[in-house]
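Thread: quick sanity check before group meeting

JM: Hey all, I'm pulling together slides for Thursday and realized we never actually wrote out the predicted structure for the chain we discussed last week. Dropping the sequence here so it's in one place. If anyone has concerns about the input, flag it before I start.
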Amino acid sequence: MATLKDYESDYENKWCPGCGNFGILEAMKKALVALGIAPHEIVAVSGIGQAAKTPHFLKCNCIHSLHGRALSIATGAKTANHALKVLVNMGDGDCYSEGGNHFLHAIRRNIDLTAVVHDNRVFGLTKGQASPTAELGMITKAQPFGVIAQSFNPLTIALALGAGFVARGFSGEIDHLSSLIQEAMTHKGFSLIDVLQPCVSFNRINTHKWYAERVYKLEEEYAPDDFHMAIDKAREWGERIPIGIMYKEEKPSFTDQIPSLKEGPLVERSYDPNRLKSVMDELK
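JM (edit): ok, ran it. Output follows.
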């Protein structure tokens, strides 16, 4: 059985003290151990940013890719070895800005992976300019007169595109977030968890205290199979902010629909290089 120690990395962590990333990292480790997933059975993929450093601090297979490209790299990894569990870590800027197009199409394809988005409403690595989820009027070093673009709501976008698992978590609720990650990783298909995460250096509005006073867990009687209710909950913001599984629906995943993968993962197949050479020769 895997233990928390099995996932402890040797790399020094230099996130700012109090960063919400620490809570997300802890929640992920707890989830992996609770699910009994061994380090060799998972690949952690990330893009660029403070959130994207997360795989460095997980002792498992990992790929630190390009800005906004984590989901495309993760798609390739899942297709090559669909027996692997794929866990993707991205910041809100990384996923919803540079990676916006990959976000949309990963949902459409229903890739069987879990996307954990560390949503702090700023670009933390590049010194705090507003991300797509920043609210109208938010003042940053790059937007001294306030943000003038409409805030991006990833949950409503994911729902509109037909995502089968849509959830919101809070880095200050580690056990609750860990349970969401467990649910997401056992779901067959694309799973999105947008995690509200304070940035102690560049976002002085959406602080840990600010979120703690507003977030509430979805009631036990809430039905995550009601699409219209999920839309309403995803849009709820302000004095009360719901966290939990907004929507859940089972449907065929991307790799389930590829006939050639039914025989098993591509990485376990043997191939005849002479047959490949003959094909290449025909293309000359």
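AS: nice. Residues 4-282 form a domain with the Rossmann fold fold (CATH 3.40.50.970). The first strand starts at residue 42 and ends at 46.
JM: adding both to the slides.
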